[in-house]
Amino acid sequence: MTIQDMVRILQARVLIGHEKLDTPVYTACCSDLMSDVLAFVDEKTVLITGLTNPHVVRTSEMLDLKCLVFVRGKVPSDDILESAEEQGLVVITTKATAFSACGMLYAEGLRGVPVPLEWNTEDDA
Amino acid sequence: MNALMTNTYPVTAADYTSAGRASADIKRKLKQLGVSGDVLRRVAVASYEVELNLVIHSLGGELSLSVYPDRVQLVSSDVGPGIPDLSLAMREGWSTANDEARSLGFGAGMGLPNMKRNADDFDIQSEVGKGTVITMGFRLA
Ligand SMILES: Nc1ncnc2c1ncn2[C@@H]1O[C@H](COP(=O)(O)OP(=O)(O)OP(=O)(O)O)[C@@H](O)[C@H]1O
Ligand SMILES: [Mg+2]
């Protein structure tokens, strides 16, 4: 799907990046823990989050993410949006909760990012 | 080999607002030099993690970037407090981050292992009461 499809599915409002809505997206991750996003994401993906501090945008910049989705209707402050605009990020906001937003996008074909985790099989014993 | 470029960024302890500026600049500079793709992303992530650690855990320090024709080097050094148990600090999930850092989405104890994973070579030296020095190298294709 494209970011435009995400906007439709989530009945979202586009805050930044109107000109880039035709960008294709295949995967997403949902987290409020930037440490985990930095550790587990290694592709240009979508971040769904309820956290609206400057580090969400910084983390997106470091990882070259395509789109930030704020849930529960959150809108970050203008200076945060400005820095998102500078780096060419698309930012949208939806009234849906994180759980619902993920469910709706998954149902339409968006998938999670692969997590390179190996279970320690001894833990299963 | 002579460095094509070097730059040093002072990093202030507990300055959560500015945290990440050095890494953003490092990423920009490397991009201008033609570094791209996977290497650029790995340097950016490791740089951001190490810069955040300077802000969150150290008493202040600096991050320096050196670019050579075949590699990028990042060195973080700080003036304390040092890490008492390095093997514990390197373990995923171990963190002494304060509430402020946690409220910003950090403090999962993932930073050091993530730096090690992203860098082609990683070295950490620390002495309690003196400080911590982390050296990371990244091969350019
Ligand atoms: N420069 C430093 N000076 C002093 N202690 C440090 C420094 N860097 C890391 N540490 C210690 O090592 C621990 C682990 O660091 P690491 O980066 O892996 O996790 P974190 O910063 O606590 O959380 P995260 O990186 O996931 O946000 C820290 O909690 C801290 O106790
Ligand atoms: Mg850290």
How does this structure look, described?
The complex is a heterodimer of chains A (125) and B (141). Chain A has 125 residues and is an alpha/beta fold. Chain A has five helices and six strands; from the N terminus they run αββαβαβαβαβ. Chain A has helices at 3-9, 34-40, 54-63, 78-86, 98-107; strands at residues 13-16, 27-30, 46-49, 67-70, 90-93, 111-112. In chain A, helix 2 links the parallel strand 2 (27-30) and strand 3 (46-49). Chain B has 141 residues and is an alpha+beta fold. A five-stranded antiparallel beta sheet of chain B has the order 1-2-3-5-4, covered by helices on one side. The mean pLDDT of chain B is 97. The interface between A and B is medium-sized, with 20 and 23 residues. Residues 49, 53-54, 56-58, 78, 81, 83, 89, 94-97, 106-112, 132 of chain B line the site of adenosine-5'-triphosphate. Residues 49, 52-53, 111 of chain B line the site of magnesium ion (MG).
Task: Provide a concise account of the structure shown.
Chain A has 125 residues and is α/β, with parallel strands linked by helices.
